Fold these 2 entries.
Entry 1:
Amino acid sequence: MPEPIPPEMLADLKAELERQLSRLERSMAVTDEAVRPVELDQQSVGRLSRMDSLQNQHMSQNLQEREQVRYGAIKAALKRWEAGTYGRCTQCGEPLAPGRLMVMPEVEHCSRCGG
């Protein structure tokens, strides 16, 4: 069982979560612009260009879905921080391994409960 995380490391992890949230919010604003409907303008966009635009839009939609999932995970981690439960598995309550949190500070399960 991992040892509880030292307070100074917890503060660093919270700061990292906040940085990631800020970067993600900026990225999501750009992605939101990229998923707008592709305009059908036969005068300025040929068939292949329109197909490229549609393909880019589809890739942006996939990115948007991943960003929304990550956004929710980071917000949930910050809520756990406020509740005083950050750094513990949300399923079994055991402390999370510090290395696991350093790689993915938004992680909510230990390796035993969440894989």
Entry 2:
Amino acid sequence: MKDITKHYSNGEITIVWKPGECIHSGICFRGLGEVFDPKKRPWITPEHASTEEIMKQIDNCPSGALSYFKNENKDETQHVVESETIVETVANGPLLVFGNIAIKNTDGSLTHKHQVTAFCRCGASANKPFCDGSHQKIGFTG
């Protein structure tokens, strides 16, 4: 899977979108459709809402495919959550881990995740150990 990263800015913050991590939950556009509209190109238009509204909506992204950084802190690449780690099982979907985590890859390297990370429970993801939304395609129940 390609490691694509796209950036969208309203001047105050830059939205970072990693399509390879997106599980297509739809939370972004159902919560802030004036900014996140998958039927438009570009699909993210941050000038249509306040910075605070955008940050609040991105904080709800279950996969972490959407993140942001404040433009005054250009060296910062992720919004880091300062809280305990919480694990939640989604009915018929992924395992969500809320908080800052490090995943040790098979080659020994570490992948750092912040906010929410969705892990595959169905076994069909092409992006293991992360969820890619395949549970919906295969009708996973659990």
